[in-house]
């Protein structure tokens, strides 16, 4: 009985490997729009949901391949569990680092359910944060210990536009970099 189950498990595993190889590559343009966002093509490039207007004025969506390459990950469609745990939306058209300025979004991304189990989404937000001069592991550590302080530090990192200089100030106030998009 036990050896029969072992044989069935081995056959199941072998068949699943064979089936995966015969199904072909993940091509962003071939994905349905409801699984496009947070997917990675066989080429290792991120898939990106875009919208466009048709001739009759309707808005339609399509999945495209971005130029963003994900190291050590390919042929990946994000799970519904990670979408929920990280508080992201599969219907997002483009992804902005602005989400890091929302305390609820940062709390979800930094939650153990997301941060420890969803490497694809964490990698994406790690890179978005880095584009703003923020180290995501440090931000998440601060988020866990003192969420208000984390937001203050994020805002002061240059991720948000600087306030106006006071009259008579000789400080050079430059605009913050634009939010990073993929």
UniProtKB/TrEMBL annotation:
Residues 163-182 are annotated as: Disordered. Residues 1-24 form the signal peptide. InterPro entries: PAR1. Keywords: Signal. This is PAR1 protein. It comes from Escallonia rubra. The lineage of its organism: Eukaryota, Viridiplantae, Streptophyta, Embryophyta, Tracheophyta.
